[in-house]
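FAQ

Q: What does a record look like?
A: Structure on top, sequence underneath. For example:
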């Protein structure tokens, strides 16, 4: 039996109680818990694959750029240094110390290359695209009774009320693989998954103090296969020169061409800050696309492979032989190692975030013509449950405003003021940004965005200066982190005489 012990929250991972942030193994012979693996921040679940190997799901936070699942063996260190306070305790086989970790490594891959004792995530889940709070991990052991993905892992997400699907492989003896969308639209936040004896999947759900996109406080729902095989990407396998993408059904041969595929790679910073933007994005040229003899696998030759990066794969214009379109057209492959020993180029500099075209709408300095004074000061705070503490603010038309957004919550949020009742429009546009959103604080470049803060980490704040709209009326404000805008919103009412 394996358990994780995590006690307390201080806005960052801490380990004040012995073995907080560790996975422990119960030894029935001695009736004791034995240290098994370290380096966890706030895992919400773990499970095993068909081979019995253990995978733990972790959430974005300090030292953790995005959600992920990691395979754990005894003695592994999964990346968060707070737990290393107990690495010298009797029974521990983890040798690293807290002082061995610092921001200078820049990526987990570099830390592993230099320290040799850092366990890389088997699969990264891009934040806001495939979840914001990974939770349950369960293998499909139904031998096909639940659908065509037997043996693969299903991973739930609390904040976005969805399930993702993971196909793994081993390269150089370590797991890596791909994550795809699977099912979304559940009623609340998915915390636990379990298969029933009839091979249907039950999803135990709760908002648990946080809100979830499903909207309900709690739910129990069942997912059953209809018996029809969807046209999907089934798995991705790395090769020395690119990737083999296998589909669930035979492909229309005439559709297979390089232009049907688009690949780019990126990574996350490994640092003490909360989360990470998407950094060091590069496009990968696809030089050839070949349909293999099974009729279901396309071999792509890809230029510029780099170990330690995540590869976004998008497919367009591909149909099955029976003329089905793809149900989901994208996935993300974590390339920890290139088959054949290629290492690629690891991040040598800090990693450059894509230029943000909306930067002018985040005025962090008081305008010179304000002469050091402002008319009104507004402070807005987040609240537990993915909400703003104040849903109603007021301002005078044309007032010079000093605005501070404080975030005492345990996840990232931002503040975006829209040009009227435009919360839904701006929120949907932010959700459609994909990787560009993660690289630009989820601020869409559109006229409906008047001003905004940066993405504010837990227990921090951001201050901006702006002039209130001169036209009296109602102006919605939202948090544009994907999935948040539906519940995290309020209104600024501009009323009274112009200043």
């Amino acid at each position: 039996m394996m358990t994780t012990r995590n006690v307390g929250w201080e806005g960052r991972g801490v380990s004040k109680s012995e073995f907080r942030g560790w996975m422990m193994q119960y030894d029935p012979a001695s009736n004791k818990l034995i240290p098994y693996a370290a380096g966890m921040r706030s895992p919400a679940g773990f499970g095993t694959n068909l081979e019995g190997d253990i995978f733990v799901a972790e959430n974005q936070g300090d030292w953790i750029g995005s959600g992920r699942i990691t395979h754990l063996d005894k003695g592994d260190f999964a990346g968060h240094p707070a737990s290393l306070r107990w690495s010298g305790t009797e029974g521990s086989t983890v040798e690293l110390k807290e002082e061995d970790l610092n921001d200078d490594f820049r990526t987990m891959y570099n830390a592993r290359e230099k320290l040799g004792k850092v366990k890389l995530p088997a699969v990264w889940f891009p934040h806001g695209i495939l979840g914001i709070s990974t939770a349950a991990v369960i293998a499909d052991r139904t031998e096909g009774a639940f659908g065509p993905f037997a043996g693969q892992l299903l991973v739930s997400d609390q904040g976005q009320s969805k399930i993702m699907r993971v196909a793994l492989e081993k390269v150089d003896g370590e797991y890596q693989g791909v994550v795809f969308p699977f099912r979304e639209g559940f009623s609340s936040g998915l915390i636990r998954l379990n298969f029933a004896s009839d091979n249907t999947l039950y999803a135990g759900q709760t908002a648990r103090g946080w809100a979830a996109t499903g909207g309900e406080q709690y739910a129990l729902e069942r997912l059953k296969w209809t018996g029809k095989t969807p046209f999907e990407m089934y798995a991705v396998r790395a090769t020395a020169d690119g990737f083999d993408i296998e589909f669930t059904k035979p492909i229309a041969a005439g559709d297979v061409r390089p232009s049907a595929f688009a690949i780019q790679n990126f990574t996350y910073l490994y640092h003490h800050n909360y989360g990470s933007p998407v950094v060091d994005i590069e496009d990968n040229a696809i030089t050839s696309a070949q349909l293999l003899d099974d009729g279901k696998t396309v071999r792509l030759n890809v230029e510029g492979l780099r170990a330690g990066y995540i590869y976004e794969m998008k497919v367009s214009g591909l149909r099955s032989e029976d003329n089905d379109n793809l149900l989901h057209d994208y996935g993300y492959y974590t390339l920890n190692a290139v088959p054949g020993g290629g290492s690629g180029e690891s991040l040598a500099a800090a990693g450059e975030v894509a230029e943000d075209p909306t930067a002018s709408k985040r005025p962090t300095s008081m305008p010179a013509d304000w002469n050091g004074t402002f008319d009104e000061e507004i402070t807005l705070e987040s609240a537990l449950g993915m909400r703003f503490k104040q849903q109603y603010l007021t301002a005078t038309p044309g007032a010079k405003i000093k605005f501070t957004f404080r975030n005492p919550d345990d996840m990232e949020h931002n503040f975006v003021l829209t040009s009227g009742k435009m919360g839904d429009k701006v929120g949907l546009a932010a959700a459609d940004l994909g990787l560009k959103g993660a690289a630009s604080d989820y601020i869409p470049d559109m006229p409906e965005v008047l001003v905004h803060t940066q993405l504010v980490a837990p227990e921090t704040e951001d201050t901006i200066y702006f002039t209130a709209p001169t036209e009296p009326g109602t102006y919605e404000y939202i948090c544009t982190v994907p999935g948040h805008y539906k519940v995290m919103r309020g209104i600024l009412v501009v009323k009274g005489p112009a200043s």
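Q: Is there anything notable about this one?
A: The helical segments are 108-115, 423-431, 435-439.
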